[in-house]
């Protein structure tokens, strides 16, 4: 049995009897994370606006799905409460959902800026607040936030995206400081270039080769590379790790 990256599927069962919520889990990195947790014994809830794809994945992994518009605070709050209720509590929250736009700095409208931040940052605050309260009642938990290499080194045309991911890193640090005394660890993951289905139709082989050269490892990330980091941070192996922003960039950045 192999995962989507062609590697051997997990044989460990680190998350048996653990309840996990993954936002933006219908496809790409989020779907890989959901599958990986389920493969290690977790009960998984997928929150995503792509209801059909989320439902199909949930069925495949034996989890549940909750339709959710993360740009809407009411929808976000209701979906999180429902997911936690159906799971019977939450031990791990993976805030994976996010949006990406390339727009020149001088052309970014207030509406586009607010939309990016509403999903990439505000929704994360709301899901964290709701999950953390449940985790505190259960004696602790793990929260993993999806940031980006762009949150450390912004690129042209990505002002709103890069700023939102820098905000994720800061939100992670503050959350770790406030929730640590309650037994809740909070960390973020900063992926670089990842080969997902979302960009497959637009990227060329020449672009992949160019981007790959930026890594000392000579390749781009697979979704399984990012999922592996998320699972590590959610596991007992990372019990003394909190407030961190860990790179999964193949050495493209090293801070």
Task: Report on the architecture of this protein.
- This protein has 255 residues and is an alpha/beta fold.
- It has one domain (19-244): Rossmann fold (3-Layer(aba) Sandwich).
- It has 7 helices and 9 strands, in the order E-H-E-H-E-H-E-H-E-H-E-E-H-E-H-E.
- It has helices at 28-39, 51-61, 73-87, 110-138, 159-179, 205-212, 223-234, and strands at 19-23, 43-48, 64-67, 92-95, 141-146, 184-191, 194-195, 221-222, 245-248.
- The strands form 2 sheets. Strands 3-2-1-4-5-6-9 form a 7-stranded parallel beta sheet, sandwiched between helices. A two-stranded parallel ribbon has the order 7-8.
- Helix 3 (73-87) runs parallel beside helix 4.
- The chain is globular and about 45 Å long.
